[in-house]
Amino acid sequence: MKSKKINFSVTVIACIVTALLTCFLTLWIMNQKLNKYARLREVDNYIKNNYYLDLDQDTEQALMDTMLKGYVAGLGDKYSQYLTAEEYQNFMTKESGKTVGIGVTAIQNEDGYPKIIEVQENSPAEQAGLQINDIIIAVEGEDVLEYGYLESIANIKGEENTSVTITIQRDMQKLDYDIIRKSFDIITAKGQMLENQIGYIKIDSFRENTVEQFLNALENLQENGAKGLIFDVRDNGGGLLDSLEKMLDPLLQEGVIATATYHGGVTENVVVSDANEINLPMVILVNGNSASAAELFSASLRDFKQAKLVGTQTFGKGIMQVTTRMHDGAGLSLTVATYQTSVSECYQGIGLEPDVIIEPAENFVLTANPDSETDLQLAEAMALFEN
């Protein structure tokens, strides 16, 4: 009996010690967390008690948003960012492949005015009658040079179902257009047949709606007897990995195409292809603005011996972000992994060196209309099919 009493006492003491240690550890962790934000509370209290104006709700929200933006910025990663509720909604709209506006792409001409180089299909601008090479000389009656180029461009943008007045110069005419801003699908993948039955698809980004546009263009080119394919990802800054996978699937053999390495060295397959594969020669046009998913698209096709790269060194972004909605409607875009093909190393900070390096012609501007006479890189890509 004595032995049993001793064992029971030891067990009780052990339980008490364990409970005390657990309590102490919990209090220590809580104290560390409180100390972590002590400076923030101190600054917050000082501002509320000493700022010469009362803080309204909007100012309080602005302080919180700015604080959280700064907190994430402390990572030193330019791709990780805190998004306000409005910014998050705009981001998700962009990822879906939709936009609100009038639907033109412009560059600054030699006189300083915006010159329209592309009019999106089914956009308010197309419906209103704006054309490529139109010069925007005024927005809402304000001359672009006097009001400011960037300010004028920003003034064209706005909320859905609102109106903007644009004055354009076309040849010797000055024309005014009242255009209603609308939400519409952005054309991010568009194909056409070039000479010698070479199919060409320009991919501007990898959005949700890019997949359908790309697959339709690919199917049309095949049905019309394409003997080779050129994919143009110049100035393509990337996009969604899911869209990339669906676009690569019909182009590559069965198997694991790309993997990602997460925190702690955990590796996962992120791009997988089935057995269906297009058997056509391929070339990809790249430049220094080809980044992220555009680079993985290019690296995947080259590493699996499907395509050659033509152009200049790519940007070198081999890290992946995941964007998550917070409880209040805000968002957090965070870099969570590196990625690479299952054949080669990650190109983060390095980029991809083309198989054929060729600089663009001086003053060359990439537009939606391919022209091998002015586009030296496109001409070189087409020449590869002759060899």
Features:
single chain, 387 residues, alpha+beta, six-stranded mixed sheet, five-stranded antiparallel sheet, 11 helices, 19 strands, disordered N terminus
Question: What report would you give on this structure?
Answer:
The chain contains eleven helices and 19 strands. The protein is α+β, with helices and mostly antiparallel strands and 387 residues long. The strands form five sheets. Strands 10-11-12-15-16-19 form a six-stranded mixed beta sheet, sandwiched between helices. Strands 1, 13, 14, 17 and 18 form a five-stranded antiparallel beta sheet that branches. It is globular. The protein starts with a helix and ends with a helix.
Task: Write a brief caption for the model.
This protein is an alpha+beta fold. The chain has helices at residues 2-36, 38-50, 57-73, 85-96, 124-128, 144-147, 149-156, 210-223, 241-248, 293-303, 376-384; strands at residues 81-83, 98-101, 104-108, 114-119, 135-139, 142-143, 163-170, 173-180, 182-185, 189-194, 198-203, 228-232, 255-262, 267-273, 282-286, 307-311, 319-325, 331-341, 356-357.
